[in-house]
Structure formats: C-alpha cells, structure tokens
Specification:
This protein is 48% helix and 15% strand. With 252 residues, the protein is of the alpha/beta class.
Length: 252
C-alpha cells in the first residue's frame, strides 16, 4: 500500500515536480500539496475524521510561504498528531533554522537533509520509510551546523535575543527595575518591559523551570554575567552544558 504523504513546498515549480516524481515510484500517494505551514496545519486538523485523507508522513521544506517555517509547522501539527513522521529538507544555512530545529524538541520519527543532496525521489523514499518506521536521520552536514549553533548559543546566550531584548537583559543584570528600564528605553508603560522579560525567560528556558518572576529575573541576570546558558534542577543547583551536550553541575 503506498505511503500517504502531505507535501509542503512553497516553490510553485518544484512542488508539482516533486509530487509527480514521488508518485511515479508507485510507493507514494500525495494526499495534499501546499505552500505554507498554515495550510499544512489546517489540512492536517481538518482530515482528523476523514480516513480518506490519512497521512503517513510529511515531506516539508523548512523555508515556506506564510508566517510559519517548516519546523514551526511540524511542531504545531505534532501537537495534534504526536510523532507524526516528518522529513525536512532545506537549502538554507541560517543559524535561526538550526536553532529552531534544536529547540523544537522533535527527537524521533524525522529526517533533516540538504535539499541539494537528497531531493530526488529515489533518495527521499528511503527517508520517508525510515521515518514511518520510527527511525530518525540528520544529514551529517546539518548535524555539524546544529552543533555549531548550539555551542555558539551556549557561549553567547544574548545571541538568542532580539536587539531590544539584549538591552533589557543587560539592564536586568545591572539591577535595574522595570520602571527604570522603561524610563531608560523611553517606554511610558512598564508593562511593556514585563512582556519583554517574558520573552527573555522563554528564549533562555527559564519560563519552563520556574513560575516565580523574581527567581526567573535573578537567573536571567546570572546568565548575562556568566555569558552562557544555565539551567537549574529541582534543588536549585545550577548546571551548564559540557562539550558533549550533557548538562553538568556548574563548578565556577
């Protein structure tokens, strides 16, 4: 029985060519082809009660039309359909994509490959079959770049923030209050700074580890001073990531 595939590709010439090539193998049926992550999410949700539109896997470009990139779209879809297999491909070499992939927490049933290296039907098909079988694969070149970006982020957490968030983080680390930061940045409403603080906590994983704003604020200041991402366990012990990607107790 052919694999039922959702194809997400924003290039109007490549999309039908991919569909035609994959279906010519006799092992794939493209159930739906679209250009944006929003369309892919809408289609995925709408077919829940329609077995005729069952999806076995998604083949998805990372750069898409619309507001979502492919990784964000996959995360949204897999909230509704946990571990739905996804094969990503991309020609992009932007740190933001590798960062998004690492932070998405998609740890199984996927592949992530270079478009130029793998985008032939007879090369895509084994990746789709592996993903459906629960096996994962990252192109070694992409794995290297993901690791490089992770190391960059661990050594410069400010790189994860927007420029105005970097300013706020530095002022938090200097001990300034929201009112003082708002005045320094020319905001009339200190609640604007509270929202920026929340974005900083989310970017650094602090929103997931504490519900106390004062603790999150203190930890954000420590991260700025340490110039590296830190996590705290349930006992409040600070940890940093070592060269092997393991969280270890911070000694210094």
């Amino acid at each position: 029985m052919p694999l039922s595939l959702l194809l997400v590709e924003d290039n109007p010439n490549l999309r039908p060519a991919l569909q035609k090539g994959l279906e010519a193998t006799g092992q794939v049926r493209v159930v739906h082809a679209c250009a944006s992550g929003e369309d892919a999410l809408e289609f995925s949700v709408s077919r829940i009660d329609n077995p005729a539109y069952r999806i076995d896997a998604i083949l998805m470009d990372v750069q898409l039309a619309g507001h979502m990139n492919g990784i964000e779209a996959a995360v949204a879809i897999r909230r509704e359909f946990p571990r739905l297999p996804v094969v990503f491909y991309s020609i992009q070499d932007d740190d933001a994509y590798y960062r998004a992939f690492r932070q998405a927490g998609i740890l199984s049933h996927y592949a992530y490959v270079r478009k130029s290296n793998y985008l032939l039907p007879d090369m895509i098909l084994p990746l789709l079959k592996d993903a459906v079988s629960g096996r994962s694969f990252i192109d070694p070149e992409i794995e290297t770049r993901v690791h490089e970006v992770r190391l960059k982020d661990e050594h410069d957490p400010l790189a994860l923030l927007e420029p105005h968030e970097q300013q706020v983080a530095k002022m938090i680390a200097a001990g300034m209050t929201n009112e003082q930061i708002a005045a320094r940045m020319g905001f009339r409403d200190k609640r604007t700074i509270s929202r920026v603080n929340g974005q900083i906590y989310t970017a650094w994983g602090l929103a997931d580890t504490t519900t106390d704003e004062k603790i999150a604020r203190t930890r954000a200041a420590l991260i700025v001073h340490a110039r590296r991402i830190m996590q705290w366990d349930e006992d409040g012990v600070a940890k940093v990531m070592d060269e092997r990607g393991r969280w270890v107790e911070r000694n210094e």
